[in-house]
Design brief:
The complex is a heterodimer.
Chain A lengths: L3 H11 L2 H4 L11 H26 L3 E11 L2 E9 L1 H24 L6 H19 L4 H19 L6 H32 L4 H6 L6 H14 L8 H4 L5 H11 L2 H9 L1 H4 L3 H22 L5 H21 L3 H28 L17 H15 L5 H14 L5 H26 L16 H24 L12 H4 L1 H19 L10 H7 L4 H49 L6 H20 L3
Antiparallel strand pairs in A: 1-2
Chain B lengths: L2 H18 L5 H25 L8 H27 L13
Helix pairs in contact in B: 1-2, 2-3
The chains are: A mainly alpha, B mainly alpha.
Amino acid sequence: MNLFASFMLTSMLMLLLPIIMSNTQLYKNNLYPHYVKTTISYAFAISMIPAMMFVSSGQETIVSNWHWLSIQTLKLSLSFKLDYFSIIFIPVALFVTWSIMEFSMWYMHTDPYINRFFKYLLMFLITMMILVTANNLFQLFIGWEGVGIMSFLLIGWWYGRADANTAALQAILYNRIGDVGFITAMAWFLANMNAWDFQQIFITQHKNLNIPLLGLLLAATGKSAQFGLHPWLPSAMEGPTPVSALLHSSTMVVAGVFLLIRFHPLMEQNKTMQTLTLCLGAITTLFTAICALTQNDIKKIVAFSTSSQLGLMIVTIGINQPYLAFLHICTHAFFKAMLFMCSGSIIHSLNDEQDIRKMGGLYKPMPFTTSSLIIGSLALTGMPFLTGFYSKDLIIETANTSYTNAWALSVTLIATSLTAAYSTRIMFFALLGQPRFNSLSPINENNPHLINSIKRLLVGSIFAGYLISHNIPPTTIPQMTMPHYLKLTALAMTITGFILALELNLAAKNLKFKYPSNLFKFSNLLGYFPTVMHRLPSTMSLTMSQKSASMLLDMIWLESVLPKSISHFQMKMSTIVSNQKGLVKLYFLSFMITLTLSLLLLSFHE
Amino acid sequence: MSMVYVNMFLAFIMSLMGLLMYRSHLMSSLLCLEGMMLSLFIMMTVTILNNHFTLASMTPIILLVFAACEAALGLSLLVMVSNTYGTDYVQNLNLLQC
């Protein structure tokens, strides 16, 4: 009981050690990845102790260490909030990161800068920990920006590739738009409540909290890739697969949802914000599920799946269930990271082939990857009593039995069936059927790093839902009684999605592909959103500014109106009117002779 | 009439002759124009000072201003001619085209 805060801070301080060691000889030899991985596994083990203390006693802690500065009446200090959300999220994040580090020891084995890769991943993890344990908005913003920057560095890991640089820049730009909302909220809280500490914000009474909550919603839209600021997430798949597994499925993209969960005491009184959140999440989950149906890159399908699940988390916040959203964050991390790692295993085995139309028949050559991919997909779609069931099914049941927007509810249900549909598509094209890849592919999954890491997440995908949901303290009570058709809705939608997708895939397997229909084009080109929004506003604003500043002001008002028009007019008139011959010297001479003659005549006059 | 005035009047006549009779360069007629302006200025100033005609004391300055404007105009014409032909020979001005 006494060592609660010490253990937690120790576990987070251990993560800093490999960064500090990067100036020494340890960084230069090839044992550094192993060192980093072991550090994270020890940090996970140590952080389980406070987690179990919390589970048994419900004790929460706020650690305020160091008073940094006071700006008139605002006091900024380094403080860690170790409450329900942080204590459960940190072991989950460390466990998933441990598996991903071990996986990248296999995946990035031939990379000459593998030490730097591990350092970047570790720095990302540290900033994520800062974000999660922050007790004031300033520290949270430090973590927020930190994960953004590490995301940029890691997406552009292979910086020689132009697409990777574009994707990294796109991620930064979209996140920046969300940061505007974050800073608006910070400024509003500073001006109206004189505090950036959560405790003071939640206690102070205020009538209309729309502005800061809108700012926080914009921040969540940017960071968690909701509709409107979503194109950066599929583009972020340009980074290596461990980066996609860690950042863009489990940890960074849930930062936006985490922010909204942190502010749930403010959100549960504001009906407008809840409706906005609900509709935003609903449209995100449906739109990205539609886009995932026709993609051909296996990592992009999983990225859209992540985006769809994030929309589901935002929907959960919209129906005023922050604890369920948090449970979904924790369970989603397991199977989504595992899905990415299985795709990485397939990609490496097929010699960096990412197109599912060129995979197939991996059921026999790669049995372990196949089984973990299938279990991951089943957990994702919410198969009863796997991990996803404990969070996803509860969310659908609560949405069904609550007094909510019928459109948002039906859209969420449709997206649930689409989840099953695209998962079936992945499994059908990548695993089943006859092989469509090159004959001499080096298919080998016999590496212990790969097998152990996926095995750990596999066990997590099966059991973590049960373990977590039976050990957490009671929060909002889930709906216990409902009609049987409502209870079975999620399962029915999922089974519908599975059967429909399987039938369509089997029926169309050997048909010739003629011309894409309009609906296909809409889905494949991501709803035309990047095509329109990346080109139209920039072209319009640049053309408008060129026309108004350069054409209108400079060339017309300052050049053409007076100077050029006068000179043009004069030249034209002079060429029309004059009929002289230009004998200048003769004219001058005749002038002088006239003068002299007149002078002589008049002077010698009488 | 005193010698000063005759002297300056003669200078004016010399410059006028130079303006009206020049061989090839346009620049020489512009220089003679300046000479005319100079002699007029001195004549005007000496007359005003000798007759204590205080109210007209600003007239030389006004003359200077107008002479400056005309010199600028003359020079710009010279520059236009020089841009087109490379030199300022008067025999080039036979085309009547800008």
